[in-house]
Design a protein that fits this description.
The chain has 540 residues and is of the alpha+beta class. The protein has helices at 29-42, 76-86, 111-116, 196-209, 257-268, 283-294, 314-318, 320-338, 382-386, 403-420, 425-432, 437-447, 460-463, 486-494, 499-512, 515-520; strands at 16-18, 22-27, 46-51, 91-97, 123-128, 141-144, 148-152, 184-185, 187-192, 231-232, 238-244, 255-256, 272-276, 302-306, 341-350, 356-358, 360-361, 365-368, 372-376, 390-396, 452-454. The chain folds into 2 domains: 16-233, Endonuclease Chain A (Endonuclease, Chain A, 2-Layer Sandwich), CATH 3.30.870; 243-454, 2-Layer Sandwich (Endonuclease, Chain A). It is 31% helix and 19% strand. This is Phospholipase.
Length: 540
């Protein structure tokens, strides 16, 4: 049994590697929301949550799971408020992205009032506007008592709940009086142990950078840290990787660990690459796949992607969808030319009228050779790898077939079985060996007897030929860097004697105050500009 060349390199494609006491993979929101409910109910000192989106009244337990609540509160904000009222030692901090106005009609309104003015004083809610110009805070992280953490692709908001059966219709997928939404797939991780500490520090720094001041999430000794995962995560250390775009206020250097993580993992692939993601428009990942496919003397790969049939919103269908289809068609041509297996799939349930109802894929998973796996918040887009804030956890095996490798394989096979719609040992056996996976999946998809479908690789312009002449060439919705010119960053950092730079420093003190001082103590997490001392000892 030969050793596997390590992909994870702290300082390049991950921030740190830490041990876990226990870790699990939670597939789909029913599993995640249920475990989050249980963790909230047991919390003693602190609950911290950061995400892209929240909804105050999202229901965490549904259907038969409601029996566990015994008639008690199961909606997110009322539950958190109740826990604060019942436990005077509990503090709750919620940090949400201060979203673009383009999304205003899709978000719950007046959340500052709703979260802060109608709840216990120890429940604090903030909007975080410290992302780069045109960027978003997209990390999803929950830390309970400093000793238990959840992270992955899932926010705690409406229109996300589903279970692994993904029926075409389900009354349980109804939020706040809305009509039930369609099938929805996502993946989250849960962990305990030393790896929680850097995640807690990450939230502390994010809270400080948002202007919320300094908080300390001291770990609480707990003997009741249990959870019911969909399947165990691999044992051993977990690597934490991040994306942060460059900002001026508060000062923060760019971090592109997840970009390097994907590129390095693809370059190392010997047998297969499995990706499930909400989008595929990253030029860096496209380039890495082409480079690996064209590499001389390397083994032929099986490359499989599972994606939504099309992005949710029309603006994303026009922008992200067009770029995605162009890249995927080009990859298909390169794979055909070089002899690699390549396929893109969707997953659908058959409705009563015989039509397909596609599952919306929102997860962000990459598995290579059953020896490497990363799960997180980062989409395979330009902005997720260079501009937005993102967070991924990764595991890698030391040798093919070792305990970590077997655990990764179980996760991969389970996810593929969900998308295909297979169950039972005999049915899953063809998915275990990766030698002819694309051929196996193609046969299942073409037969139409299960859930798997060939992805149509078409855009809204393809669907309506009258719109084809209107198809644009370039889009700004998916940049890899901030649209703010680099020369301005340099002027602000280096022009210490200029009037403009002095004015920015004054504005920084007024807007950020002590928040950046707290963040400087976490400079390994969110790097601040060097601390300079002026006359009189004041910090700039």
């Amino acid at each position: 049994m030969s050793d596997v060349k390590s992909i994870l390199i702290p300082g390049r494609n991950c921030w740190t590697r830490s041990e876990t006491h226990d870790a699990g993979v939670l597939v789909d929101a029913r599993a995640y929301y249920r475990e989050l409910y249980r963790a909230i109910r047991k919390a003693r000192r602190s609950i911290v949550i950061t995400g892209w989106q929240f909804d105050s009244d999202v229901t965490l337990l549904r259907g038969e799971d409601l029996e566990e609540a015994n008639g008690g509160e199961v909606r997110l904000l009322p539950l958190l408020d109740q826990m604060c009222r019942e436990n005077p030692e509990l503090h709750v901090y919620i940090l949400a992205w201060d979203f673009s106005m383009l999304l205003a009609m899709e978000r719950e309104w007046m959340q500052n009032v709703l979260f802060n003015w109608t709840t216990n004083e120890r429940l604090r809610f903030r909007f975080d506007s410290s992302s780069p110009l045109y960027g978003a805070h997209h990390q999803k992280l929950v830390v309970i008592d400093g000793v238990m953490a959840f992270t992955g692709g899932m926010d705690v908001c409406d229109c996300r709940w589903d279970d692994r059966d993904h029926p075409a219709r389900s009354k349980l997928r109804c939020d706040s009086g809305r009509d039930p939404h369609g099938p929805y797939h996502d993946v989250q991780t849960v962990l305990t142990g030393p790896a929680v500490k850097p995640l807690a520090e990450l939230f502390e720094a994010r809270w400080a950078h948002s202007g919320g001041g300094e908080i300390h999430l001291e770990p609480v000794h707990r003997d009741d840290l249990t959870f019911e995962a969909t399947m165990p995560a691999p044992p051993g250390p977990v690597a934490i990787s991040r994306t942060f775009g460059k900002t001026i206020l508060p000062p923060q250097d760019e971090v592109q660990e997840i970009r390097a993580l994907y590129v390095d993992a693809i370059a190392a692939a010997e047998r297969f690459i499995y990706i499930e993601n909400q989008y595929f428009s990253s030029r860096a990942i496209y380039g890495a796949l082409v480079k690996r496919m064209r590499a001389a003397g390397r083994p032929r790969l099986q490359v499989m992607l599972v994606l939504p049939r099309q992005p949710e919103a029309l603006r994303e269908q026009i922008a992200m969808g067009v770029a995605q289809v162009r890249l995927l068609r080009a990859l298909r041509e390169v794979a055909s030319e070089t002899g690699h297996g390549f396929a893109v799939y969707g997953s659908a349930a058959t409705d009563e009228d015989g039509s397909d109802v596609f599952t919306y894929i929102h997860s962000k998973v990459l598995i290579v050779d059953d020896t490497f796996m990363t799960i997180g918040s980062a989409n395979t887009t330009n902005r997720s790898l260079g501009l937005d804030s993102e967070l991924n956890l990764s595991w890698e095996a030391r040798a093919p077939g070792d305990e970590v490798s077997r655990a990764i394989r179980r996760v991969r096979v389970s996810l593929m079985a969900e998308h295909v719609g297979l169950a039972g040992v005999a049915a899953l056996r063809p998915l275990v060996t990766a030698t002819h996976l694309v051929e196996t999946l193609d046969a299942l998809a073409q037969a139409g007897q299960h859930r798997l479908r060939p992805h149509p690789l078409e855009t809204v312009f393809d669907q309506n030929p009258l719109f084809k002449p209107l198809e644009p060439e370039e889009f700004l919705i998916d940049p890899e860097e901030s649209v703010l010119d680099e020369s301005l960053f340099e002027a602000l950092h280096k022009g210490d004697d200029g009037l403009f730079a002095s004015g920015v420093r004054l504005l920084s003190r007024l807007l950020v105050g002590k928040s950046c001082e707290a963040a400087r103590r976490h400079s390994a997490i969110l790097p601040c500009a060097p601390v300079q001392e002026e006359e009189g000892g004041a910090l700039s």
